[in-house]
Amino acid sequence: MCVNFLNEEPSFIFYPFTREDFDSGIEATLALRDINPLITGSIFGWNVHHAPLARNAKTGSLVARVTLTTRIRCSLEAANVTLSSSDVNSWPLLITRTGWPREEETSVSTHVLQQLDLNSHVLVTTIPGKVHFRYLHLVRRRARRDETNKREIVYVAVIGDTEANVQAREARPDVRCVRESGYCIRFTEVNKTTLDVTYDRSSQCESEKHAQELFVDWAELIRGFVPTWSLL
Predict the structure, then answer these.
(1) Which one of 11, 21, 30, 83 is separated from 226 by 20 to 30 angstroms, measured CA to CA?
(2) DSSP characters over the chain
(3) Average pLDDT in the 154-170 region?
(4) What average pLDDT is seen over the chain?
(5) Can you tell me the mean pLDDT for 145-151?
(6) Which domains does the chain have, with CATH numbers?
């Protein structure tokens, strides 16, 4: 199908994901989310498990990553309601370009392209500019038991693609398609009123300076958790 935008952003052709393509993209992301137990600092009440900049062995892309952990006073059911009722335009951006001013966030557009089930969606986000940043992303929310049989909710958002979409994508000088970024948020039940939260972020970046800008963006995001839930 042809995806058109109201604000004159360039259109594109989208081919729906199969269930297999969608699940493999999500599971591949989860498989890489191992947490470094070494805590290197704290920010806004969150522990920082920082990982050094590294290059993706397959793509050669420079990748920034950080894992943040905390404990909050909240029930698993309340956290689930907050996640499921939030608007798509309030969700964290997977990536921003170098030097992008945060006050321009209201100009970002996100649209649902496909719903595979109640908790699994394919979306497109465009960050406007002289060169538009655009990415397809897969989003899934799932309740499950962790490896110690504790209840948890896992929310994953990751940039995804398929061969059909790659082949259909028209090369344009005014559009840059980003292919490597994602995050995973885990709410693990400690008791009926307490949750452990793990927030893991990774993103393709252009330079060390760009990585530092992304870290600042991610820190601003977690500060938003403070008025929503009480940190312990």
Answers:
(1) 30
(2) -EE--TT-PPPEE--PPPHHHHHHHHHHHHHT-PPP----EEETTEEEEEEEEEE-TTT--EEEEEEEEEEEE--HHHHHHHHHHS-GGGSPPS---TT--GGGGGG-EEEEEEEEETTEEEEEEEE-SSSEEEEEEEEEEEEEE-TTS-EEEEEEEEE---HHHHHHPPP-TTEEE---EEEEEEEEEEETTEEEEEEEEEEEESSHHHHHHHHHHHHHHHHTHHHHSEE-
(3) 90
(4) 85
(5) 90
(6) 64-225 (3.30.530.20)
- Give yes or no for residue 192 having a pLDDT over 60: yes
Using CA atoms, how far apart are residues 147 and 92, in angstroms rounded to an integer?
27
> What's the rounded Cα separation, in Å, for the pair 132 and 160?
18
Q: Average pLDDT in the 88-101 region?
A: 78
- The predicted-structure confidence for 18-61, as pLDDT tens digits, reads as follows 999 999 989 887 876 666 667 888 888 899 987 778 887 777 78
What global pTM score does this model have?
A: 0.86
- The residues pairing with 135 across neighbouring beta strands, listed in sequence order, are 125
